[in-house]
Amino acid sequence: MKTASGVLIPMIVLAVSIAAAQPEPGQGPGEGMMHRQGDPGQMMMERLKLTDQQKADMQKMRADMERSMVKTQSAIHLARIDLRQLVAAEKLDRTAIEKKVREISNLQQEAKSALIDHLFSVYAMLTPEQQKTFKQHMMSLLEDGPGQAMRQRMQRPGRGMMHERMNEHEDDSR
């Protein structure tokens, strides 16, 4: 059990980091990038060769997770609006600002904990062979590190994200 935890915990940390780093819809140049490159989560699901029952269970778990995340992300977004108002106030209230920052931090931790719970639930429903495939996939993500594909794209001359976004808009206007 120690070996499974020793491998699974770093993989979960990576998954949480990747999920937390994803921009909200309509927020930033990276939106849609995962779709163009191939969704690593979807690629892993295909490699797991899930049974029909596992697929159904997984869809329900994912929907439940998404509902939970939408609620938490909405609460974070509202708290950030409140924080902006506190900072924009004529007279700054340090105590109120610190409290709001703690609230945002707690909500972010809640989202990460929910994702970890979800990943452990998914892992528990897999067969030993599927767990092995899951671990291999996560280890390959760890080797490259989160954001490796994005860093490579940004390093190519004339092929940065802004260039790609401009090309997307040109393609859309044609």
Give a written overview of the molecule.
The chain is 81% helix and 0% strand. The chain is built from 8 helices and no strands. It has helices at 2-21, 33-37, 40-48, 52-88, 94-125, 128-144, 148-155, 161-173.
Brief overview:
This protein is mainly α and 174 residues long.
Topology, number of strands? 0
Query: How much of the sequence is in beta strands?
Result: under 5%
**How do the helices and strands follow one another from N- to C-terminus?**
HHHHHHHH
Radius of gyration: 19 Å
Which key terms come to mind for this protein?
174 residues; mainly alpha; 81% helix; 0% strand; disordered C terminus
SSE arrangement:
Layout: H1 2-21, H2 33-37, H3 40-48, H4 52-88, H5 94-125, H6 128-144, H7 148-155, H8 161-173
Helix pairs in contact: 1-5, 1-6, 4-5
